[in-house]
Amino acid sequence: MYRIIRAQALAPTVTRFEIEAPFIARKRKPGNFVMIRIDDHGERIPLTLADSDPAAGTITIIVQAIGKTTKQLCAKKSGESILDVVGPLGTPTPIEDHGKVVCVGGGVGTAELYPITRALKEAGNTVYSIVGARSRELVILEHEMQAISDTLFITTDDGSYGRKGFVTDQLKELLDTVPGIGAVFAIGPLPMMRAVANLTRPYAVHTLVSLNTVMVDGTGMCGGCRVTVNGTMKFACVDGPEFDGHTVDFDELMMRNRTYVAQERISEELHVCRLTGETREAHR
Fold this sequence. Notes:
This protein has two domains: about 1-90, Translation factors (Elongation Factor Tu (Ef-tu), domain 3); about 100-255, Rossmann fold, CATH 3.40.50.80. It is built from nine helices and 16 strands. The chain has helices at about 20-25, 70-75, 110-120, 140-145, 165-175, 190-200, 235-240, 250-255, 260-270, and strands at about 1-10, 15-20, 35, 45-55, 60-65, 80, 85-90, 100-105, 125-135, 150-155, 165, 180-185, 205-210, 225-230, 230-235, 240-245. Helix 5 runs parallel beside helix 6 (about 190-200). The protein starts with a strand and ends in a 16-residue tail after the last helix.
């Protein structure tokens, strides 16, 4: 069992957890993730490590309540426990000095972007960060990103905070006005990452994206996280989760990610036994 040291709401549907996991805390590198299972009846889900404290023996994950499991996880409080936390998994982000970089985070993707941005800054890069969200209340880690960026831009779809529009609007302005940008790192919803890759392609700027895929074991055995990169099949869990955005088949990936939408919807429905009136959970 892995004890939750602290659970903190960052936004209406987003929670930050500090979890006791000494081994993972010592080994974690930017870009790594963990596989989590809440209880004996739960599914395994991949979650990127936002931070770690080796001295305290804790890791930090930031979770958005979207499906059944993430909603159950976000309902947990400080002092409660999680059954399984396996990691660190995945290939760490390649960190080097590109000179000038742009780090683009969309929604909860900013949590995954944070440790990468910090590592890029420590490597000597000039860092321009763009944090995007649908509205002001969903902007997360603004102060943390500000502290590790040379310049931080905020965008919201509805214009309630920062610049009105998408992260790509701000990114295009940077590409047009700042000479010598060596790389772009983008993490967020798949349509956002696809849009970023399409934007940077004519500029010939190296673009790295982190792919959120269907994943079961996180070790390359199940094959559920297959992605097509440069015409070749890759496994996001062991070959990624980060890839050159200009070579990813985003259309195929988005189609694959919709495969189990109906099943996810069914799992969230509360089943009541017609004989006893008890819920499905009550029988477990």
